[in-house]
Amino acid sequence: MKVDAIDHPLAKNQTPRIVLQITLTLIVLATIPLCYPLLGYPLFLLKNSCNNSSDHSPSSHDSREGLIGELQREKRCDIFSGEWVPNPEAPYYTNTTCWAIHENQNCRKYGRPDTEFMKWRWKPDGCDLPIFNPAQFLEIVRGKSLAFVGDSVARNQMQSLICLLSRVEYPVDVSYTPDERFKRWKYTTYNFTLAIYWTPHLVKAKEADSNGPTHTGLFNLYLDEFDEEWTTQIEDFDYIIISADNVTDLPMSYGYRKAFRTAFKAINSLENFKGITFLRTFAPSHFENGLWNEGGNCVRTKPIRSNETALEGIDFELYMTQLEEFKIAEKLGNKRGLKFRLLDTTQATLLRPDGHPSRYGHLPNENVTLYNDCVHWCLPGPIDTWSDFLLEMLKMEVIRSYNDEKLHSKDKKNDD
């Protein structure tokens, strides 16, 4: 099923309206800092608002040129490098105000006694990252579509986004199948489509013995074949966020690399795909005193600081594998005019061993065999910050679109 048709921004008969839309959006964005390191972008786009936004009055942004000029004057900042600082105003939704929280991540419902894990925000080194603004996000994605492609942590991220947006609007279920792994939602006021495509391996997989008596959950993976459950569905999306965190489902290192290479190849091979692909990087788990199936647990109640830990071992290897395959895919995609962006959540999540459900993803006396969950994230919780990152990146896409449109207009005048 196709999402609603989206006007192509470069269509000749749409240029005046697009310029107007971009101008209006820039005015809306003017009071919010832009802190996103854009690798390979012009230098002035690396500069962002990292000072107190209250020092700037709306009158300083009377024109789009004024906004761009301000961006040129401000220093750049890597929003993905920083520390967690207290935020007494959080959380911005609860497990009673948002119905989208998956039961296994509904930590407060199932008795987690502490609340401090919900009351932190990410502070980049050298600038401030604005708290997610749901109205602004929905305005930016008006008339567009976004798909999460990945495993249950991707679903976790999507449900976080739905909860954050619930302060403005709840979506309508417009799924093309009753299968819960492939949900599609519509924000009718904004004509914005949000979808999840569950693919724990990113590539084609087949359960080894789905009808057998043991139901071991073992899969045969076809590392060089596309998973058509999602690759045949995403061609009309404006944004794709791809990820893979449940690495116990993949052969380490080699399999992980091959899975991402095949997934990126699938995206780059889509003839009509014109969207932006975000790689949301690996989010480390936090099992201590044992592996996930050997009694390991995550019982911390506060973040740790960056000088207290480091990404190492297999986690470092998987992260670097993602970056290497991302750069290869980006280079190939650029030849077709496709955009790839790095949503680097790894450091921020590495510092949050306190944010997992642990044993608070089910009733204490529930008659099921469940391991302590140190992979997924409580909602509300640390991964709400992933939407802070995403919104900043989308704002920078607006700025870049403005500059591309301005350059196109200048070239057209010169040709005339």
From TrEMBL:
**Annotated Trichome birefringence-like C-terminal domain residues:** 129-244, 245-393
Single GO MF annotation: O-acetyltransferase activity
- Residue stretches making up the Trichome birefringence-like N-terminal domain: 76-128
Q: Which InterPro entries match?
A: TBL, TBL_C, TBL_N
Q: Which residues are listed as membrane-spanning?
A: 18-39
Membrane topology per the entry is:
Single-pass membrane protein
What's any one GO cellular component for it? Golgi apparatus
Primary localisation category: membrane
- Its domain of life? Eukaryota
UniProt KW Membrane keyword? yes
Location(s) in or outside the cell: Membrane
Query: What Pfam family does this protein match (any one)?
Result: PC-Esterase
Keywords, comma-separated and alphabetical: Membrane, Signal-anchor, Transmembrane, Transmembrane helix
What family is reported? Belongs to the PC-esterase family. TBL subfamily.
Protein name from the UniProt record? Trichome birefringence-like N-terminal domain-containing protein
- Origin species, per record, is Acer saccharum
